[in-house]
């Protein structure tokens, strides 16, 4: 848990897009970044009430991934929703 908290505290120190890109490029593999970003886009599309077939077509996500993200939206801690509210 200490490692995860350190990660969160580090992310909170990011001030620019360039810093964010540099950290995540150093921290994650291309595959990990692709997976994380795909889940974020899937969550956004689900919150916009898009249907699974449209999400699959646009993101290439599997229906299993879409279902997992949908469960997080329904039963998670509200992290996605907080981020999406800040976009407006």
Task: Break the fold down into its secondary structure elements and pairings.
Layout: H1 2-12, H2 17-27, H3 30-47, H4 52-59, H5 63-75, H6 79-87
How is this structure best described in words?
The protein has helices spanning 2-12, 17-27, 30-47, 52-59, 63-75, 79-87. With 88 residues, the protein is an all-alpha fold. It has six helices and no strands. The N and C termini lie far apart (32 Å). The relative contact order is 0.09.
Task: Detail the poorly predicted runs.
Answer: none
Structural class: mainly alpha
* Shape verdict: globular
Radius of gyration: 14 Å
Report the span from N to C terminus.
32 Å
| Helical proportion, percent range | over 70%
**What count of helical segments does DSSP give?**
6
> What amount of the residues lies in strands?
under 5%
* Major β-sheet profile: none
Order of helices and strands: HHHHHH
What features would you highlight for this structure?
globular; 6 helices; mainly alpha
Summary, kept brief:
The chain is mainly α. It is built from 6 helices and no strands. Helix 3 packs across helix 5.
